[in-house]
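dumping these here so i dont lose them again. two proteins, back to back, each one seq then structure tokens. dont judge the mess
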Amino acid sequence: MDQARHDTLVRQLARRRREALAALWQIEALAAGETRLIEGDATRIKHRRRERLKYLSDCYRAELAEIEQVSERIQQRIYGNCRSCGGEIHLRLVGVVPKSELCGNCQAVADRAARMAHRSEVEANS
């Protein structure tokens, strides 16, 4: 991976990390406020909202963990090449799915194979 590509990946991941952290902080602030508001008949509604906030918080925590793993692979210069064909993973794909290990073509092949396997399994169970 050349230096320009490396720098672009680092910038993209830093931006995604900032966005995920900002969203996580907002969600946790909302959740903290919810714990103080639970009283009376609104308890059930607020409990559901708290569950949704926890789910969102867990999603952003998982995304941050993925970003950290990708950052480590970038620093070690082992990130950016498809594990299937060895070709470069396009920077736009990395911006959408930071943990991408397959290039767009190989991912499409893998997705098709997974769909076909799922269809076969459904048909076998029918």
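---- next one ----
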Amino acid sequence: MRVRVEILLDDGRLTSMSFEVTPLTPSLKEALKKQIASFLDTVAQCSPTPQPHLSPSSPTLHNEVELTLRERLEMFLKYGMDKEWFTSKDVREAYEKAYGSRLSLSTISTYLSRMYQEGILERGGTRKERKYRVVSVAGETSASELKV
């Protein structure tokens, strides 16, 4: 089964995500639904213009999903900073531009360390000059695979 989601933003940019799943088991189906919902949330949060509200009858999302700070930061890294190595300071600056709120370096460093321990990020450099990079996982779509 091949699934493709395309979103045409108000400014004319096209963002898309695609999956190819064979065979489609119930657990993969649920994971696919969650990934699509996360993608839609990420696009809505990163878009410079307001997105239309999804109705409760929407087949994709039954309720708006409130992301925790950690979940939002993880999605931000996976879809916004997946191409190269970055530092805590890089994340703070990019996150502030995207969301308009400033996080402390200690908060960012803590979450980056936890994501490294969970296998979401790679880590390099010395303690003083620590750098991270998003680990590519089969079946997940990163920003570098999205058409923007």
